[in-house]
Amino acid sequence: MPDVSKRNFPMSYADLIGLCNRIHDFQVRDTAEFVNFGILPATTTAFETKISEFMDLPQDIAMEAEVINATQAKNTLASEIRIMLRAFATRARLVFELNSGNYKRFHSGELSRFNDNDLYMFADLVSAAAVELLTELSTTGLTQIMIDELDAKIAELKLMVKTQSIAIAVRDTASNLRVKKANELFKLLMKYSDVGKNIWYEVNEALYNDYLIYDTQVGSISAPTNLSVDVSTMLFTWSEEINATSYVLEATTEVGGSDFEVIYSGPDNYINYTPTSEGLRSYRVRCRNSGGYSEYSNVMLYNYIAVLPQPGYISISVINAVTGAISILWEEISGATFYRLYHSQVAIGSPALEYTMIGEYSVAGFSGSVPTGYRHYFKVICGNSEKLSVDSDAIFVDMPLVP
Fold it and tell me: How many CB atoms lie within 10 A of CB 7?
């Protein structure tokens, strides 16, 4: 459910409540005068109740936190399922030919790009294929228990997708309700302010001024502070400023430059934003009300880097223990155009030392020979013309001398 509500008031929620409480207090003081205009004490009490009910509504940022938490939990589970699917594909690769129909039932080069629905639909297909081909795949260590674990995670992902959707709907509904209730309060605020001014106009200047609502909210506003970004969620946040009705977040790729572009304009002091490309950018934010804009915040520098996924599921098969012939397979990464295999040769039982690159390959595999009588560590990095992944986890094989 999208947020279709629009604020009808030129102030922050905090200022609106402060002004409503202030006018209510003056109403109570001037009860007798308000009664002359048909505004009875019960009406004034109802105004106070509406103020209290609004203050009890959930905060927008709290609702956004629920969405973020649900999204993070879902994304974590989706990552676990991708890891399991890649492990299933690696096992299938050890049994079936790369171009065979059976292998293609387990492998998808688009796995890292699947949305949630695509992911659990593909995972269902992999699970069914694993059950059908379990006899062949059992030679690589696949068990029914592993398939059952995958099925359980698929079911959990489907539930988490619904949970995320519900959290988004709850957030949007709560935000819309909050705006609606705030608009109702502002309408009452304007009504009672006008009544109060009419009561005391040319009668008592001090009491008349009590009902002026704009002097406290228009004019000078401070620049937002504490501009920051949570890189795990890409949530940009900054301080909520008194008297501000909206905020403008800007960015530029020119460090120290002045050619900023607006990336957000709205009433909230936070926004989820992912840059369209990697690189260092300068960010700044300012706020405004009907009196104008504040100064800009201090500039924040943030270098956004989107790396390729880390290659996983490296497996080593010993082809010939006498000659040291081995075969190494690893996960195929969507978007990677090359793989670099690194090697560290040490005494059996020793930790890895300095790695050297064996070579760069266009496919996710290597076949060759290594000296016997040593322990051999391997790790992989994938890349393309624009970026590299981080190192894969290291794996090793002992190749003792064979008499």
Answer: 18
Other beta carbons within 10 angstroms of residue 20's beta carbon come to 24
What residue type is 17 in one-letter code?
I
DSSP string covering 273-323? ---SS-EEEEEEEEEEETTEE-PPPPPEEEEE--PBPPP---EEEEEETTT
CA-to-CA distance for 84 and 66, rounded, in angstroms?
27
Q: Which candidate, 216, 220, 230, places its Cα nearest to that of 61?
A: 230
What's the pTM value of the predicted model, to 2 decimals?
0.49
Amino acid identity for residue 64 in this structure: E
Contact 126, 103 (CB under 8 A): no
Contact 311, 380 (CB under 8 A): yes
- What's the rounded Cα separation, in Å, for the pair 138 and 132? 11
CA 346 to the chain's CA centroid:
42
* pLDDT digit string (tens) for the chain, length 403 residues: 444 456 777 667 777 888 899 999 999 999 999 999 899 999 999 999 999 998 888 776 677 778 888 888 888 888 889 888 988 988 888 899 888 889 889 887 677 778 888 888 999 999 999 999 999 999 988 899 999 999 999 999 999 988 888 888 887 888 888 888 988 999 999 899 999 999 998 889 889 888 887 644 444 688 999 999 987 677 899 998 877 888 999 998 876 667 788 889 888 899 888 887 778 889 999 998 777 788 899 999 988 876 777 888 888 989 999 999 999 998 888 778 899 999 999 999 999 998 999 999 988 889 999 999 999 999 999 988 767 787 888 999 999 998 7
**What do you get for the CA distance between the two ends of the chain, in Å?**
72
